[in-house]
Amino acid sequence: MKVGIVGLSQVGKTTIFSLLTGIEVDLFSQEHQRGTAKVHDKRVDILTKMYEPKKVTYATLEFFDTPALKINDKKERTAVFNLLQNVEAMLIVVRAFKNDSVPYPEVEKPIDQLKATLDEFLFRDLDVVMGRIERLENAKRKLEPKEEIELKLLKRIQEALENEQLLSQIEISEEEKKMLGGFSLATLKPIAIVVNLDEEQFTDKNYETKDEIVKLCEKNGFAYVELCGKLEMELNALSEEEKMELLKDLGVEETGIQRLSNALYRQFGLISFFTVGKDEVRAWTLRKGSTAVDAAGVIHTDLARGFIKAEIIKYEDLIKLGSEKAVKDAGLMKLVGKEHIIEDGDIITIRFNI
Ligand SMILES: Nc1nc2c(ncn2[C@@H]2O[C@H](COP(=O)(O)OP(=O)(O)OP(=O)(O)O)[C@@H](O)[C@H]2O)c(=O)[nH]1
Ligand SMILES: [Mg+2]
C-alpha cells in the first residue's frame, strides 16, 4: 500500500517519513522521497523464534514525503497532490510540539492545521472535478451516454465538496467509484492523522485542541495516532535492548512509529498472512476480503496460475499447540480452494502445479 505524507510547513513530515522508513534525509533538501517501512508485528517475532529461519521479512508500507501545503495556494496544492497521484491512502501530520526555534506553520493551533489541511484536500478535489466538468460541458460534440452519466455524478460530487463533505463520507456506489478511479480524488482515500507532540505533551497525554481533533477524527473515521518525533528519534538511535528498556520506563510496549504503522494497516483495511519455514518466515499483505488465490498471487504469479489448494492453519492454533504437526493431528488444518476468504493471521502453504 502506498501512503502519502502531507501537512502544513514545519510540522514534522520529513522527520516522520525518515523514522518510518529508516531513510536518512537532509531536512533542508527540496528532494521528496519515497521509501519502504516495516510494519512491526509481534507474531513474526514469535514465529521467528519457533522456526529459526535464515531470513525474516515483515510486511511493508510504502511512504511518499511531500513539500508543505500552503493555505489557499493552488500552485503548491497542485504540486503536492500531483506527487500523490498513485498513493492509495493519506497520512496527515499535525504539529502540536512547541519549539520557538522551529518556525511555526501558517496556523498554529493543531485543530486549525488539520482543518486547513483538509480544506486543501477539498479544494484539490474541486479543482479536479470542476476541470473535468468544464471539459465535458465545453465539448463541441454531443456527449456519449456514458459521459452524461459521468457529468451528473461529477455535479453531485461538486456539490458535496462545496458543502465541505469529504467524498469518503458520501454515498458512492462501487460502479461510480470505478468511474472516478482515474481522478485520484484525495478525499475519497482513507485518511489517518498523526499529531507530533513534544515530550511534555507526550507525558501529559494532552495538547491544545486535542478534544476537537479527536472528535473530528471520530466523525470522519480517520485513524488517530499521537507520537513524539523527538523521542522517536532518540529511540531510533538506541540498540534493541536499550530501546526495550526505555519503552518499559515510559510504560509503553511499542514505539510511536510501530503504533503508527499498525494503525495505518488497520485503517487501510489490510491484513497479514504468513508463510513459515526454515528458509524464511514472512508476513504478506492482503486487503480484507481477499481469497486464497489472491494470497497465492501475492507470493508469486506462478502460484496463482498453478493453484490447486491452500493449506491453512491459524497462528493462534500453532502457538497454542506448539507445532504444525500437533495442529494437523488435532484436525485443525484446513485444505481450501481458490475462493476461500483469507483471515488475518492465517499461515498458508500453497499447493500448486505448473
Ligand atoms: N522539538 C521537536 N522538533 C521537531 C520534532 N519533529 C520535527 N522537529 C524539527 O522540526 C523541523 C521541521 O521538521 P521536518 O520534519 O523537516 O518538517 P516538515 O513538515 O517536513 O517541514 P517542511 O517539509 O519544510 O514543510 C526540523 O528542524 C525537525 O528537527 C519534534 O517532535 N520535536
Ligand atoms: Mg519536509
Automatic annotation (TrEMBL):
<keyword id="KW-0547">Nucleotide-binding</keyword>
<dbReference type="GO" id="GO:0005525">
    <property type="term" value="F:GTP binding"/>
</dbReference>
<dbReference type="Pfam" id="PF01926">
    <property type="entry name" value="MMR_HSR1"/>
</dbReference>
<dbReference type="InterPro" id="IPR013029">
    <property type="entry name" value="YchF_C"/>
</dbReference>
<protein>
    <recommendedName>
        <fullName>TGS domain-containing protein</fullName>
    </recommendedName>
</protein>
<dbReference type="GO" id="GO:0005737">
    <property type="term" value="C:cytoplasm"/>
</dbReference>
<dbReference type="InterPro" id="IPR004095">
    <property type="entry name" value="TGS"/>
</dbReference>
<keyword id="KW-0479">Metal-binding</keyword>
<dbReference type="InterPro" id="IPR012676">
    <property type="entry name" value="TGS-like"/>
</dbReference>
<dbReference type="InterPro" id="IPR006073">
    <property type="entry name" value="GTP-bd"/>
</dbReference>
<dbReference type="InterPro" id="IPR012675">
    <property type="entry name" value="Beta-grasp_dom_sf"/>
</dbReference>
<dbReference type="InterPro" id="IPR023192">
    <property type="entry name" value="TGS-like_dom_sf"/>
</dbReference>
<dbReference type="GO" id="GO:0046872">
    <property type="term" value="F:metal ion binding"/>
</dbReference>
<dbReference type="InterPro" id="IPR027417">
    <property type="entry name" value="P-loop_NTPase"/>
</dbReference>
<dbReference type="Pfam" id="PF06071">
    <property type="entry name" value="YchF-GTPase_C"/>
</dbReference>
<feature type="domain" description="TGS">
    <location>
        <begin position="269"/>
        <end position="352"/>
    </location>
</feature>
<keyword id="KW-0067">ATP-binding</keyword>
<dbReference type="GO" id="GO:0016887">
    <property type="term" value="F:ATP hydrolysis activity"/>
</dbReference>
<dbReference type="GO" id="GO:0005524">
    <property type="term" value="F:ATP binding"/>
</dbReference>
<dbReference type="InterPro" id="IPR004396">
    <property type="entry name" value="ATPase_YchF/OLA1"/>
</dbReference>
